[in-house]
């Protein structure tokens, strides 16, 4: 491969790493008075990254590239796709979007304070207009939403995704209804306080058990848990700790730990190249969802870790049996807010947003009608009546950023996770028994070999097909739910 091309690839990855580190610091330790300066610094770094990416010389180097190996071919393909999309967007449109996002964020916060959609509505309309322009600039086959999906889920298309999510919607509703008819779990945490430092210590114990390398990463606290860092040897996780909500720290740590293991697991020889990244946000989400929900809420996992959790909080949980604890961590109930939803109802929240986004992008739905459409779908999918708009159309920040096309990746993560889990159990005999002894290395090692080290050699669905024998499907996820919740709720 051309030396200049390879050097530029590494330079772009280094710049992205520094941007990631500055962003992590912004959410964790940045002094309040440094916020304006950090915003300027990030703007400078992002502009520099963009300049290096759209540099005409890089286009020439890519055109003349002579990759000598399959990995080099993949590196060139990924970088060329990234550059092609960047070049197609005029700088004036990039600037207009940045300004619109800034105004929309302010209006979204104002709307939430006033509990009315009115201040936010014109900004949604403006962002829709800009995103349509971007979709047209990128190019599509008549479905603008496809061009937006490509940002987060390369290779995925509406015609592929819609039937899967529609089928999932049809299958989930009766499962939720059946669970509704059963007695709810006991609320074992009500009125109890859990020491924050003790919670923190337990989360660190969980990270070590998962195999997260604390010499190549760290965990800190933030308002909204996330994963960042500079590369596979510097992965930053955050969690949040609430004295009256002890499960929040547990499951946000396991969730971000799943993301972190992926980031640490890229092949070392791919470091500082375009292959040391996930091929899709959905696949990345599959790693966190597999660890958080399928492993982290399972009976084998807690048969080992619950006695240790009880020892940490003997006064609060000493007389609570494992069966009650398991039903609590797997509580299913309809709720308004996506981020608080359980794994059975969660995807209904995503279907709601996906259907609205596609309609908005096609022009079948206008911003002025978005609140009413949201309320109608909430009634249809979740049988709930929205009374507080902050638990309705204003609950997510994504649309204030103009991030249309992102929400489906959450559902894809759940579906991919279930298919990977089925394949893992096919390959590893006695997996539940290993987890029940606290031995989590088989899970990590299988994911490292099958998913992590592949990086961005190919798009997500072809990789899932190769690993599992099938592509995107809801069958494995629905089967997983029926077996697990059938046992928990007696349905």
Features:
491 residues, mainly alpha, Neurolysin, domain 3, 3% strand, 2 domains, single chain, 21 helices, 3 strands
Report on this structure.
This protein folds into 2 domains: 3-88, no CATH class; 121-491, Neurolysin, domain 3 (Orthogonal Bundle), CATH 1.10.1370.30. The protein is 64% helix and 3% strand. The protein has helices at residues 3-28, 35-54, 56-63, 70-88, 91-114, 121-138, 144-152, 158-180, 196-210, 246-264, 281-295, 299-312, 314-317, 322-329, 346-362, 370-382, 408-427, 431-436, 441-450, 460-468, 475-489, and strands spanning 217-221, 227-231, 234-239. A 3-stranded mixed β-sheet has the order 1-3-2. β2 (227-231) and β3 (234-239) form a beta hairpin. α8 runs parallel beside α21 (475-489) and α9 packs parallel to α10. The N and C termini lie far apart (58 Å). The mean pLDDT is 96.
Largest sheet: 3 strands, mixed
Can you count the beta strands?
A: 3
Oligomer: single chain
Distance between the termini: 58 Å
Number of helices: 21
Computed structural class:
mainly alpha
Ranges where pLDDT stays below 50 over 5 or more residues in a row are none
Write down the CATH class of the largest domain.
Answer: Mainly Alpha
SSE succession: HHHHHHHHHEEEHHHHHHHHHHHH
């Amino acid at each position: 491969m051309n030396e200049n091309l390879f050097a530029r690839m590494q330079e772009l990855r280094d710049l992205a790493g520094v941007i990631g580190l500055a962003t992590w610091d912004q959410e964790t330790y940045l002094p309040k008075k440094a916020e304006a300066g950090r915003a300027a610094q990030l703007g400078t770094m992002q502009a520099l990254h963009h300049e290096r990416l759209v540099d005409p010389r890089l286009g020439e180097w890519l055109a003349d590239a002579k990759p000598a190996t399959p990995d080099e071919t993949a590196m060139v393909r990924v970088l060329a796709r990234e550059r092609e999309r960047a070049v197609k967007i005029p700088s004036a449109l990039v600037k207009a979007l940045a300004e619109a996002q800034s105004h929309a964020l302010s209006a979204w916060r104002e709307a939430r304070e006033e509990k009315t959609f009115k201040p936010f509505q014109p900004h949604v309309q403006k962002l829709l207009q800009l995103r349509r322009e971007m979709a047209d600039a990128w190019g599509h086959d008549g479905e603008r939403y496809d061009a937006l999906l490509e940002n987060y889920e390369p290779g995925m298309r509406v015609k592929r995704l819609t039937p899967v999510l529609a089928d999932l919607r049809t299958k989930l509703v009766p499962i939720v209804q059946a669970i509704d008819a059963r007695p709810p779990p006991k609320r074992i945490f009500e009125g109890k306080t859990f020491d924050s430092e003790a919670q923190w210590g337990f989360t660190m114990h969980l990270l070590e058990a998962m195999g997260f390398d604390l010499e190549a990463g760290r965990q800190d606290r933030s308002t909204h848990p996330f994963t960042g860092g500079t590369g596979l040897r510097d992965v930053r996780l955050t969690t949040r700790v609430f004295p009256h909500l002890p499960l929040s720290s547990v499951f946000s740590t396991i969730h971000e730990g799943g993301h972190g293991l992926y980031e640490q697991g890229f092949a070392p020889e791919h470091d500082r190249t375009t292959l040391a990244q996930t091929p899709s946000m959905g696949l990345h989400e599959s790693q966190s969802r597999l660890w958080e929900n399928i492993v982290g809420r399972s009976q084998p996992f807690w048969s080992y870790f619950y006695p240790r959790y009880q020892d940490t909080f003997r006064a609060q949980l000493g007389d609570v049996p494992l069966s009650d604890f398991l039903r609590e961590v797997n509580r299913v109930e309809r709720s308004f807010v996506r981020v608080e939803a359980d794994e059975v109802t969660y995807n209904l929240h995503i279907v709601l947003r996906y259907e609205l986004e596609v309609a908005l992008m096609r022009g079948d739905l206008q911003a002025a009608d978005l609140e009413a459409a949201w309320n109608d779908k909430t009634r249809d999918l979740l049988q709930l009546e929205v009374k507080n708009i902050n638990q309705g159309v204003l609950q997510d920040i994504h649309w204030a950023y103009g991030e249309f096309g992102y929400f489906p990746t959450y559902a894809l993560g759940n579906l991919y996770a279930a298919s990977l889990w089925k394949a893992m159990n096919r390959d590893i005999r006695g997996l539940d028994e290993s987890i029940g002894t606290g031995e989590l290395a088989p899970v990590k090692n299988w994911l490292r070999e099958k998913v992590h080290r592949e990086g961005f050699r190919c798009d997500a669905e072809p990789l899932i097909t190769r690993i599992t024998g099938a592509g995107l499907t809801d069958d494995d996820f629905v089967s997983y739910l029926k077996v697990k919740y059938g046992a928990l709720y007696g349905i």
